[in-house]
Amino acid sequence: MKNNKRTLRWALLIIWMIIIFTFSQLPGNLSDEQSHAVIYIFKLLGLRLDSFFGDLANFAVRKASHFSEYFILFLLALNLTKTYFNKWKSRNIALLIVFLYACSDEFHQIFIPGRTAAIRDVLIDTCGGLLAYLISTLISRRRQASN
C-alpha cells in the first residue's frame, strides 16, 4: 500500500509539471488569449478585472496564474518529499524543487515564439511556493500545539 501511495504522489507531481510545461509551451499570442478568456469568465461572474486593474488586468491574471501554479507545485512536491524526509527537510526540498522548476520553465520559454524568460517570473513562482511553505509550516505547528 505504501508503494502505491508513493507512486501516486510521484505521478501527481509529474503530471502537474507537465501541465505547467504545456502552458509554457504556448506561443505568446495564445497565452494572451487564455488570459483574456479568464478575464471574460470573471466578467461573467460579475467581477470586472479590467475595471479593477485597468490595462494591467492581463498582466495580473498571468502573474496570479504563475503564483497559483507554483503554490500547487509546492504542495505536490511536499506531499512526495515527506515520504522520504522529515517535515523540515521535506519543506526545504519542496521549495528547492519549486525554484529549480521555475528556473527551467523560464529557460524553456526562451525558445517559444512571443515568450521571454524573466527573473521576475521566477520570483513570483517561488513566492507561490514560499506562501505554501509558510502555510504548511503554520498548519504543522498548530497541529503540534493541539496534540
Automatic annotation (TrEMBL):
InterPro entries per UniProt: Phosphotransbutyrylase (IPR016747), VanZ-like (IPR006976)
Keywords: Membrane, Transmembrane, Transmembrane helix
Pfam families given in the database record: VanZ
Membrane-crossing residue ranges in chain numbering: 7-26, 64-81, 93-112, 118-139
Ranges where the VanZ-like domain occurs: 10-139
UniProt protein name: VanZ family protein
Native source species: Clostridium paridis
